[in-house]
Give the backbone structure.
Amino acid sequence: MNTGRTSAGPMSAEPAGRGRGGGTRAVAIRARGLTRRFGAVVAVDGLDLDVRTGEVYGFLGPNGSGKSTTLRMLCGLLRPSAGEIEVLGHRIPREAEALKRRLGYMTQKFALYDDLAVTENLGFVAAVHGLDRAAAHSRVEELLARYQLTEQRDQLAGTLSGGQKQRLALAAAVLHRPPLLLLDEPTSAVDPQSRRDFWDALFELADAGATLLVSTHYMDEAERCHRLAILDRGRLVAEGSPRDLLDALPGCTFLVEGASPRAAQHALTGAPGVLSTAQIGASLRVLTDRRDATAEALQRQLAEAGLDAAVRATTSNLEDVFVHATRPGREAAA
Ligand SMILES: Nc1ncnc2c1ncn2[C@@H]1O[C@H](COP(=O)(O)OP(=O)(O)O)[C@@H](O)[C@H]1O
Ligand SMILES: [Mg+2]
């Protein structure tokens, strides 16, 4: 991958992170044209990615959008079909071995031993990282306390609750104090309170200086990231801070209530100015493409379809950003 290019190549040695906003923070992860095919399936399609040191960066996308495949390539566990990757200054996959010592990776599926106790699992991970007995013992005790697993220390990992398992997996991933953590849907199997606790733990790591790349399909988690990428069928369709993404929405959002959401959706889909609609509970969210679109105009359109509904403007949220970024026909419109 060392092409000997002297300037302006996508992986050139320009000071990292100098692009947007004139910040000087280094880039922890940089990928260009990252692509992975499985037979005829293009799981990841020409992804460009810059994750800055110290940020909590989110990958938001539905199942099958390429989140796990991307993370596996960034770790060096899966070879790209095309593209270039640099993680903490290491060219991947060539220098994956050197990266291992500086990277924590939490897989989507629980990857520890169900039939080992909590302390045995952590002791095993410590041995893999080459800690001696004394260092391993004190680090494991520290992690048990920090991740509230002291009471479960002798329990088999397979018998832990969903939240406890995720805390154990996080403890294992950070045992060697890596400056970079890749977490693949770490909260998909846990209850809401455990999800919040888990995110508190993630921010504690970020506050201590770690860089985190976290995939999720939860909007509330995406909202907490410093920046995020929205993935759809292997492509990066939107990127920025939650605030930037909201500000970049081309129109405004309305809420239709009091009529069947499906009937309202039918009446408004394809109507002039309507970009997308999404049913949320008993109401319909409507994103319009004109900042000056009015509730009255939508109400008239609904009335023409024989629907008596209340329409009001509402604050746009990441759900709207997501629906807009992944709407059918987006490529044709672009
Ligand atoms: N080992 C594999 N063999 C064949 N297809 C795969 C493999 N891994 C992933 N895929 C396909 O690649 C696409 C992206 O999958 P994945 O990265 O797991 O998405 P996500 O993590 O966002 O759910 C899907 O269509 C999936 O079926
Ligand atoms: Mg996945």
